[in-house]
Amino acid sequence: MTAILFDQVDKEYYLHYQKTLKELAQALISRNKIREQIHALKAVSFSVAKGETVGIIGKNGAGKSTLLKLIAGVSRPTRGELKIVGRVSPLIELGSGFHPELSGKENIFLNGAILGLTEKAIKERYDEIVAFSELKETFIDMPVKQYSSGMFMRLAFSVAIHANPDILLVDEILAVGDMRFQEKCIKKMTEFKKKKITIVLVSHSIQQINNFCPRTIYLRDGAVRFDGNSKEATGLYSKEST
Fold first, then answer.
1. What confidence tens digit (pLDDT) does each residue in 150-161 have?
2. How far apart are CA 155 and CA 27, in angstroms?
3. Which of 40, 52, 105, 238 shows a CA-CA span of 20 to 30 A to 31?
């Protein structure tokens, strides 16, 4: 059964900015901003089977985060067909879905609701979420705007994995925090892997990709450069990055 399907997917968007004072003055007079079109994904096609673990690699700007945002439903394709089957738990951006003025406890309920959990389900899993995040009681009642990046990551990861996802998206979030907690996260993801939860992992760590993902998609300039065995994919990526 297919969990994720991309069929000739394109994603384009515009950047709005002014380059110089002259252009800024002209923009103010005309009330128009200078626009630059970005073609983030170009005719991207691939499928991910239910229960498969797939790595995504590529240089900054290759289209990795754009691809994950499409899977998460944060963005929509400009052209092409996109099909997602199942509940998605995205760890795309650190603390995305968290309200900075709310406490950690309040954000657990907010983020859980965003991920499709009922209030009853969140209450039932609340203690497990807090325990996994390793946030002390004093921190869980603090506004998350006062959290360190590591605290953000621990709470965001904990909520996501307790949302019973069919598809888990992880984008470099494991690069934040201490090594011991990163290992704890990998262990949990390995459990998901054994339970046949679909996992898509974006990472710049070649070792992490090779160890965790049997298959890897290498993106280059918004297009699929290679899709297959992870060691072959990372080998090609390393060769072309030097």
1. 888 888 889 988
2. 43
3. 40
Spans of all domains in the chain:
50-241
DSSP string of 80-93, one letter each residue: EEEEE-S-EEEE-S
Q: Domain 50-241 is in which class?
A: alpha beta
What three-state secondary structure class fits 124? Answer: helix
Q: Which of 10, 168, 14 is nearest to 82 (CA)?
A: 10
Orientation of helix 149-161 relative to helix 179-194, angle to 10°: 10
Is the pLDDT at 15 greater than 70? The verdict is no
Question: Taking the CB of residue 7, how many other CB atoms lie within 10 A of it?
Answer: 14
Please give the C-alpha separations between residue 116 and each of 88, 108, 109, 170, in angstroms, as whole numbers. 9, 12, 11, 18
Helix (H, G, I), strand (E, B) or coil at 96: coil
β-bridge partners, 91: 170
Residue 214 φ/ψ, nearest 5 degrees: -65, -30
Is the pTM higher than 0.70? The answer reads yes
Reduce the DSSP state of residue 166 to 3 states and report it: coil
Sheet-wide strand order for 88-91: 88-91, 167-171, 198-202, 53-57, 215-220, 223-229
